[in-house]
Amino acid sequence: MMIDLHTHSTVSDGTEPPAAVMRAAAAAGLDVVALTDHDSTAGWEAAHDAAAEAGIGFVPGMEVTCRTVEGISVHLLSYLHDPAHPGLLAEIDKARDARMTRAERMVELLAEDFPITWSEVTTNHLGHGATIGRPHIADALVAAGVVADRSEAFAQILTAHSRYYVPHYAPDPATAVALVREAGGVPVFAHPVASSRGRIVGDVVFAQMIEAGLAGVEIDHRDNPESGRQKLRRIAARHDLLVTGSSDYHGTGKPNRLGENTTDPEMLDRILALGSGAKPYLPGRLAR
Ligand code: AMP
Ligand code: FE
Ligand code: FE
Ligand code: ZN
To answer: Does ligand 1 come within 6 angstroms of the Cβ of 135?
Structure first.
């Protein structure tokens, strides 16, 4: 069984529409896929239908952007939450609005030095109603011939240390964990040791997230260095957290390939048992 629980579509910063992600997942030999766009569930319906058509399982998910702590941007995966839960929805909407204002400001600053405009970013590089992020700005820089691809844009111009970088509102990690739980979702800490320096968020933040109801940690992810994975395995064992492995597929936006990391079926079972806000789609051969 091949299970990949972290992918992005044009609903956020992936490059393929939700249905195309599901078809690509089936073509890659995956049995179960989760769609986890940043701060949006707008792709669930199309993904569900395409997964059913392709005969693979679909787990509705989302990746909640949380406040940056100690210089590390915390991302929280949520599976099977109620997409209409008012508390969670309010936070997500607030963060999405803040992302829009922030992206416009970043483009204003960038436009002083590079030939890009806000209207070009939103018209040519952003899906309708999609959650905007630095990758869409990167795409405008690529189109303008400033950089070759998103990776180069992030390395040279869009890093958090860049003078063009502008922060935006996002919920506190522990608050996000609690809201996901309230919405019947299963909160899983995404790529917890992802950073160029291999640093992990402090034990205090981790403890607060666990206290708030964290259910799992994403360990097998290309951005988690091996040293950090060992620490995560110890934390998971100590607190009985479930562990996942995923690709974090973004289409052509990142080198990450579907199924490059996968999740054990028993871990998926734990997620399915815990989630109560939305239903997964499991074809007959996978029904439990
Ligand atoms: P933002 O949420 O707007 O601050 O941008 C962060 C997003 O950019 C994350 O969702 C990543 O998927 C994406 N990202 C980060 N680094 C890179 C990179 N080197 N190449 C492509 N996308 C990246
Ligand atoms: Fe992303
Ligand atoms: Fe992430
Ligand atoms: Zn992601």
So the answer is: yes
Give the number of the atom of ligand 1 that is nearest the alpha carbon of residue 250: 12
- Ligand 1 atom closest to Cα of 135? 8
Average confidence (pLDDT) over 191-197 = 73
- Which tens digit of pLDDT belongs to each residue from 86-109? 999 999 999 999 999 999 999 999
Q: What's the CA-to-centroid distance between 34 and ligand 4, angstroms?
A: 11
Q: Is residue 112 a part of any domain in this protein?
A: no
> Tell me: the pLDDT tens digits for 108-143?
999 999 999 999 999 999 999 999 999 999 999 999
**What mean pLDDT, rounded, does the chain reach?**
95
Long-range contacts of 257-262 (CB under 8 A, 24+ apart): 257/28, 258/4, 258/7, 258/24, 258/25, 258/28, 258/30, 258/33, 259/2, 259/4, 259/25, 259/28, 259/29, 259/30, 260/222, 261/4, 261/220, 261/221, 261/222, 262/2, 262/3, 262/4, 262/220
Number of domains into which the chain is organized: 1
Going by CA atoms, what residue is nearest to atom 18 of ligand 1? 151
The predicted-structure confidence for 201-236, as pLDDT tens digits, reads as follows 778 899 999 999 999 999 999 999 988 899 999 999
User: Is residue 129 domain-resident?
Assistant: no
**What letters, b where the CB count within 10 A reaches 16 and e where it falls short, cover 96-118?**
beebeebbeebbeebbeebebbb
Instruction: Identify the nearest ligand to the CA of 76 by its number.
Output: 3
Residue 244 sits in a domain of what CATH number? 3.20.20.140
Any domain includes 105: no
